[in-house]
Every structure is written in C-alpha cells, then in structure tokens.
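Key result, reporting period 2: structure in, sequence out.
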C-alpha cells in the first residue's frame, strides 16, 4: 500500500514539475499583427517596387501609412482612409525635413527611397554620383532626423528600418555609386543605433541581393549577367518583394525589441560564400 502511495506521489510530483516547466516555457503574448493596429508608419520610395509592397502590407495590418514619393500619381492607390500620400523629394534637405516633422510622431520609419545609376567606374558622372548619394544616403539621414526628433518628443520607442543591399559589402561592376551609397547606409545605421538606442529608438538594415520587382526583372533578365550571382546564392534564386517586406515588418514590430544595429541579409545565403 505504501509503495502504491509513493508511486502515486512521485507521479504527481513529476506532473507538477512538467506543468511548472511548461508554464515557464510557453509565454503568452500578442500576435505580431496586433502590434500594428492603428499605429503610424512612414515609407519612403513608396511609388513602386519594395516600397509599394511594404506600404500595402502595413495597410493590411490596419496601420496608418504615410507613403512618400516624388510623384503622387505613382503612389499606392487605395480607398483605405489610413493611407496618406505625401509628395516630396527626399534629396531636398530642408523641404523633406520640414514636411516629415509636420507629420507628427510615428511608430516606425522605412527608408526605402533609392536610385541606381548604372555606370562603370571610369565613366561615372557627377550627376550619377550626386543623385545616388543625395537620395540613398543623405536623404535617409534627413528623413530619419525628423522622425527621430518626433519620436523623442513624443517619448515613442520606435523602429527605423533602412533598406540597404548586399553590395554595400560586395562590389559588382558598373555600380560604384550604388555600392558607395549603400556602404554609407550601413555605417549610418550603426551610428544611429548607437546614438538613438539609449533613447529607445532601434535602427536596423535589411540587405537584399537582387529583388524581383518589375525593375529587377528587367535589369537582371540576361542570364549572362544574373548567372554569376545566382551561382553564389545557395537557394538558387533572387528575392521576391514580399520576402523583403517580411523582414521589414519583423524589424518594425515588437517581436524584434532587442534587435538594434543589425544587417539582416535577405539573400538566400549569398553573403555566406
């Protein structure tokens, strides 16, 4: 009899331990989607490609979205009243700062605006250099300054996501200005992470390889050009816009609360080689 009681007691103790451990392991928390409801986000370069997809995804998560682009006609079209279209050139130092500051505090910023001038090193033009650096790097700084100031004033612990590239670290022919601009983005992001982190603002990069936007498909349709890069990607393909958006949404959300100053490669393994 005593043996049976001992066995029962041992069994109950084991069950109690398992239940206690389970409660410690399985912690309840809200879904990532719930985080975005009614929060406010800015997406630059929202007129096409990755930016338009990110803006659409945020609207789908029931967030307010300020979609920034140079041409209002090409910005996302939607009856959703949470979409606010903003026409401004991010390379205009004073104008973009004032317009973004006037938008008021937001919970997140996606610096996606970018251009690429395909020029060899020896034929690089002043226009190609200035336009690329002004939009891809300087514009990103200016927009971020206004957003960060608004976050600080409103005591918002927000997230800034900068769209960089794997060729910020790996050079390819005919992209000297683009490589330089994205290398600058990486260093700007690290500096922002160090300075803004203590204020509760996280800054991270998403670094794709080639992305199959309409422009990407056109630019990389020649197998002679795309083949050498595809051979270096273990997954054997280029990224789709939604896959970049997935990474951006993660970094904007509270599921990445301890992620700061990161280069998140969405490259199928390209940077491992």
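The corresponding designed sequence is given below.
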């Amino acid at each position: 009899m005593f043996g049976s009681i001992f066995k029962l007691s041992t069994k109950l103790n084991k069950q109690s331990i398992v239940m206690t451990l389970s409660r410690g392991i399985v912690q309840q928390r809200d879904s990532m989607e719930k985080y975005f409801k009614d929060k406010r986000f800015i997406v630059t370069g929202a007129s096409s490609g990755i930016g338009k997809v990110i803006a659409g995804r945020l609207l789908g998560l029931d967030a307010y979205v300020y979609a920034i682009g140079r041409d209002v006609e090409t910005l996302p079209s939607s009856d959703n009243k949470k979409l606010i279209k903003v026409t401004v050139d991010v390379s205009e130092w004073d104008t973009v700062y004032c317009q973004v500051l006037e938008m008021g505090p937001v919970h997140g910023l996606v610096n996606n605006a970018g251009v690429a001038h395909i020029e060899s090193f020896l034929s690089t033009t002043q226009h190609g250099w200035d336009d690329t650096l002004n939009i891809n790097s300087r514009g990103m700084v200016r927009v971020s300054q206004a957003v960060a100031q608004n976050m600080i004033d409103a005591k918002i612990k927000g997230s800034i996501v900068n769209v960089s590239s794997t060729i910020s670290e790996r050079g390819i022919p005919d992209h000297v200005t683009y490589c330089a601009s994205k290398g600058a983005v990486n260093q700007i992001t690290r500096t922002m992470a160090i300075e803004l982190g203590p204020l509760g603002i996280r800054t991270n990069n998403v670094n794709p390889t080639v992305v199959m936007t309409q422009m990407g498909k056109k630019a990389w349709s020649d197998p002679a050009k795309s083949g050498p890069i595809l051979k270096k990607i273990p997954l054997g393909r280029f990224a789709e816009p939604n896959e970049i958006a997935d990474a951006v949404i993660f970094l904007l959300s509270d599921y990445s609360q301890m992620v700061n100053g990161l280069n998140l490669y969405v490259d199928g393994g390209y940077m491992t080689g």
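The CA atoms of residues 105 and 150 lie 5 Å apart. Strands lie at 40-44, 64-69, 83-87, 108-111, 159-163, 202-208, 263-266. This case is discussed further under Risks and Mitigation.
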